[in-house]
Amino acid sequence: MYKKQTVIILLFLVGLYACKKGLDNPFLGFQKPSNFPEPAYRFSTNEVTKAGFELGRKLFYDPILSHNNTISCASCHISYAAFSHPGHNVSHGIHDRLGTRNSPPIMNLAWSTSFMWDGGIFDLDLQPIAPITNHVEMDDTMANVLNRLRISSVYPPLFEQAFGDRTISGTHFLKALSQFMVMCISSHSKYDSVMRKEGIQFSPIEEAGYALFQQKCASCHQEPLFTNHAFVNNGLPISALNDQGRYGITLDSNHRYQFKVPSLRNIGYTTPYMHDGRFSSVEQVLDFYNSGVQKTPNLASSFNQNGRLGISISAAEKTKLVAFLKTLDDVYFVRDKTLVEP
Amino acid sequence: MQRMIVSFLFLIVLFASCKKDSAPSFNAAVKAALTVEFDNIAGSEDLKLNNVFYYLTANGDSIKVSKLKYYVSNFSFTNVDGSLYTIPQDSSYHLIIEGDSSTYEPEFNIPEGEYKAVSFLLGVDSLRNTQDVSKRTGDLDVTDSAKGGDMYWSWNSGYIFYKLEGISPQVAGMMGKSFMYHIGLFGGKTSPTLNNLRKVTLDLTQRGTPKVKAGKETNIHLTVDVLKTFSGTATVKLADNSMVMANPYSATVANNLPGIFSHAHTHN
User: Fold this and answer.
1) Of A150, A185, A220, which marks where a domain is finished?
2) Residues B130, A122: C-beta atoms closer than 8 Å
């Protein structure tokens, strides 16, 4: 009898502990969603820890990274917009200087093999150097930024907690930012729930849109990340700026006017669209693919089939496609409290 | 008597020095110091940043230089017996910065011996260019603005191998009279691009072979003539090409760059 009681009490305590653990949301590090492929990021060089992630998160939101303490990463990568810059075709950085390209969302970067619209950066760890040193973004040097962090009262202990070294090396700074960025995982859209068979179904119109999507869009916007990470000229009219995209990186004339295929996840939060933010609605984008594609150099062959430019999308098909694309919005991601300003 | 002792001592010293020169005995198992000096010049003159007078290129262009920096890496030395000694990669990257004399003479530890040639890369090889940020230390630190931070394209991941900036009256561009040559591109990681890495091999037999031996300093003195940036395999006119960065013309300039290096002499 006595023994049985003890067992029951012990079980009760274990149960309580388990509950407590659940409430505290223990930090689990990087977890690959079950319907995603293996990530590209080299976690062997940068294991995500709670202290490292929290440090990266703090840095991401801190304008100390800019020359005059006004611009943080989050200035142009806003969490409620899936870390894009809503309403801005191109972004304004320091002193309201304008860039030339649309601020891309930060999500699922652990699966990306290149960064920026032209893919000029091949390593996530090296990515933050570009905006920090860009004249129209944060306009500083890495050395200045690191020095400001080193003389702050806040950061040395945080780097010590994260990396066991309070001297703040450039490597640790970049690794901390990567830890935050790879944790910006969007995998809880309705689409994901349907795919993971979590008891939710597409509505008939979404289902019809999904079938159309697979037929007309999925060769570039491959599931489940909704990008094939390739560079494509999709036939946008060439703007006055004459941005030649990927060509600027590779100097290969076959790459003129190619830009990275963006993911379509969270498309409802990341307006405007295209590398220069020229379209403000998904409907405009679909109209462009139906009737606006131009035969510019290196136009992808998928946009020039049987003598027709673009992809035929009827009005009825457009409605269905839009319904499906809405299932890619991930409200849990854009409201994730662990990713907002600390 | 005293005079005799002095003469005797003198003779001994003479003998000792003769012996050293005529029959050096090397122990290849022992490593000794060798420095390679990069002496930046402009034609027949020593290069001075922001010099009062213009330097004249072979094409008749006048230039003043405000910045000269370049990476030399992957050194190897060819022994007179034909064997090759390659410096371990981790200690093989050196950024030479005109105006910072602490960068002019990279030091190496190589097996004792007499060497007939030196080879190095002008630039940073593709492997190191794509390595994890934690391997980019010292001269390769892209977060150190005094070192790699000023020799790195953040928007097109890769080191700048050779950076020459200045002014020339022949330039009439948007940026006034200034010219900027930033030569990089290692061949690309995600897609192939230009490979502007150039290997430099210098024969050391004409102007004194280095005899590397423990207990003494050996120095290979190289001159680096910035004016040869503009001539050699191709004529590079400043009026036509004042800004050469990540563009196709960079390959033309890169082809001239091995020619800027010459062996002047050796201090044994």
Assistant:
1) A185
2) yes
